[in-house]
Amino acid sequence: MNKQGQQLLVRALEAATNAILITDRSGHIVWLNEAFCRLSGYPRRELLGQTPHMLYSGKQSPSFYQDLWQTILAGQPWQGELVERRKDGSYYRVNQVITPLLDPSGAITHFIAIQHSLTVSDQEHAEMRRLAYHDGLTGLPNRILFLDLLHQAINHAAPTRQLFALMFLDLDRFKSINDSLGHACGDKLLIAVSERLGRAVRKSDVVARLSGDEFALLVTHLEHAEVVEALARQLVASLDRPFGIDEHAVQTHISIGISLYPRDGQSAEELLSRADAAMYQAKAAGGGAYRFCLVDQPCGALPSPPKG
Questions:
Q1: How far apart are alpha carbons 214 and 197 in whole angstroms?
Q2: Is position 213 annotated as part of the catalytic site?
Q3: Among 140, 123, 136, residue whose Cα is nearest residue 207
Q4: Mean of pLDDT values over 271-280
């Protein structure tokens, strides 16, 4: 390899996001990159000339290290997970690969170790949780989180039979909007719808995007069902107003199905199923409407007033 190639290799190793160090045959560190310093918490000057034993955490048994050394001294690469200790005393977990480096005669001269951190920071944990439980487009709770909140609402309301409502909402004509104006416009419409729904409800209510153009609303701590009917009427009217998407005035409506706990179901499955059935009754009636579903009569009771 020429000098230019050697310089490129050094720059690549230095810029790598994985922690990398090189030791001589006896295990003393002769080179390391900045990522290793960040991960261990030690500055470069305190690591050079030392052995990786200064990161010893006590979490691995002596036989662990014996197997490691036997493997690499036999000229074979070693891979495994271990817990290390940072300069500040905190622990971190890595997946490490150690590869022996051989001279032209086949003798081991150095070892190169590459570490991939398996420790997740609190910020990364929070971001992973957000991504797992929230819709990537609108930022609303997704189906997983909504079902969990629905189960919590049932458990909380069950002892006193406290009334709450589940609304199942579906946009009318969304497919035709997607087909005519494109999916980018459709995504912007979904974002605008989620924002308009959020402004229309109380802070204690939960608006979620279940999938596609399907939304759900959990309305808890109700004194009587008339509150839900007033909210449904308000939501229908709010979504009737055109949306300004790019240069288009996009007109859509919303169909809403409503089930009430404990009257319409005792479980999440029953409440969702009956709200879904009521929503289809509203859609079958022409959309832009809401319907309650009662267990003792067909869905479609309490229709909304005709649209102007």
A1: 12
A2: yes
A3: 140
A4: 95
Q: Which two tokens stand for residue 118?
A: 């398996």
Give the containing element (helix H, strand E) for 56. Answer: none
What digits encode the pLDDT tens for the residues 86-134? 999 999 999 999 999 999 999 999 999 999 988 766 666 677 777 788 9
**What count of Cα atoms within 13 Å lies in the side-chain half-sphere of residue 265?**
21
CA distance 249 to 28: 69
* Long-range contacts, 279-288 (Cβ 8 Å, 24+): 279/168, 279/169, 279/170, 279/255, 280/255, 281/257, 282/255, 282/256, 282/257, 283/170, 283/172, 283/255, 287/172, 287/173, 287/253, 287/254, 287/255, 288/172, 288/236, 288/239, 288/240, 288/253, 288/254, 288/255
- Return the structure tokens found at 73: 């001294």
pTM of the model: 0.60
Contacts of 123 (CB under 8 A, 6+ apart): none
Domains annotated on the chain, with CATH: 3-119 (3.30.450.20), 124-292 (3.30.70.270)
- How crowded is the C-beta side of 213, counted as CA atoms within 13 Å? 22
Beta-bridged to residue 168, according to DSSP, are: 216, 257
Tell me which of 213, 246, 264, 276 is the catalytic residue: 213
